[in-house]
Amino acid sequence: MSARRARLGVLVSGGGSNLQALLDAARQEDFPAEVACVVSNVPTAYGLERARQAGVRAEVVDHKGFGSKADFEAALRGVLADAGVEWVCLAGFMRLVSADFLKHFPGRVLNIHPSLLPAFPGLHAQRQALERGVKVAGCTVHYVDAGTDTGPIIAQAAVPVLPEDDEASLSARILAEEHRLYPLAVRLAVTGAVTLDGMRTRVDAIVTGDGRALRSPGAPK
User: Which of 49, 86, 142, 218 could form a disulfide with 151 if both were Cys (CB 3.0 to 4.6 A apart)?
Assistant: First the structure.
């Protein structure tokens, strides 16, 4: 009998390429999670079509149809609860979630951001990196808290910033790493391989694509 898989709810506002990375990962028999539903606040988001093509429940909860953020989030939680969602993955979801929303999924809301946090939080992180003149950029998967891209970091991937880069080319290089990193971080989180200690995390082991395990300092052998 196969092991039970964690049920993910993925929130999107746009094209959903990171959603696609999670859908692709979930097709692997050894991946410890399945995408139970995809929800968008934008009715025309292509991420919804990605979900439908994968045979995954796709729902619209348009924030514009609610009189308050509390009402919007209550409707969002209702869809997630109906789908039996245990973990929430933000994948280009362009709405900040409140502390009240987070308390319904304690320690089980993840986000991916296109910078090496804590550098360049918020919108247009790639543009911020270029304007600041950094030589290395990247992406971060982190637990979501009530701040903007301020939660404890699970995993990061770095890419070089080349002299000829513009926002589009740097974004594309980072995005390729996002597609690799998000499924890896989800695997770590849902299997209990991440230990939280305040704002710090310890990852017991990272299994790479070639089967090697990378251990964080101090992790048990």
Answer: 142
How far the first Cα of the chain sits from its last, in Å, is: 29
pLDDT in tens, 124-162: 999 999 999 999 999 999 999 999 999 999 999 999 999
Residue 14, number of CB atoms within 10 A of its CB: 17
Residue from 113, 124, 142, 179 carrying the catalytic annotation: 113
Domain regions of the chain by residue span: 1-106
Superfamily (CATH H level) for 1-106: Formyl transferase, N-terminal domain (3.40.50.170)
Rounded to whole angstroms, the Cα distance separating 142 from 65 reads 29
- pTM, 2 dp: 0.92
The single residue listed with the structure tokens 């919804």 is: 48
Decide if 88 contacts 8 (C-beta within 8 A): yes
Catalytic annotation on 104? no
| Dihedral pair phi/psi, residue 188, rounded to 5° | -60, -45
